[in-house]
What we know:
The chain is of the alpha/beta class. It has one domain (4-28, 38-114). The protein is built from 5 helices and 6 strands; from the N terminus they run αββββααβαβα. Strands 1, 2, 3, 4, 5 and 6 form a 6-stranded mixed beta sheet that branches. A hairpin with a 4-residue loop joins strand 2 and strand 3 (62-65). The mean pLDDT is 81.
Amino acid sequence: MAATADVIALLGTTGQTAIIDATEIRGRRPAAGSPDRNRFVSGKSKQNAVKALVLTDTSGRLLFCGEARPCSCADITQARQAGLVDLLADTIHLRILADAGYQGLGGQTCGQVVTPPRERRGKHLEHLQ
């Protein structure tokens, strides 16, 4: 499997669209008294897990799978730590589709990462009516 930089370069030269997401894999809880015991608890599923960043093409073929990290790390943080923002700064003609966990990356990557629009709640709804 190729490195992130190689995958982004390939996608950029071919003009393909990609899909990015992180997948959680349940695991055993670290031993009691371990200093990092709570780092593996997922905020979403409330279970012990590790998370891996995955990049596929639009047909679902796996292009990149990052290293497994503690699940307490947010999706967007994991993408930043993988260097995705820096890699996309040097690439044009590339679109990466992402879920709401990556909102904010679009602004940092000149719109190359596309996420669904934010939901407006509470007092923001008054302005829309």
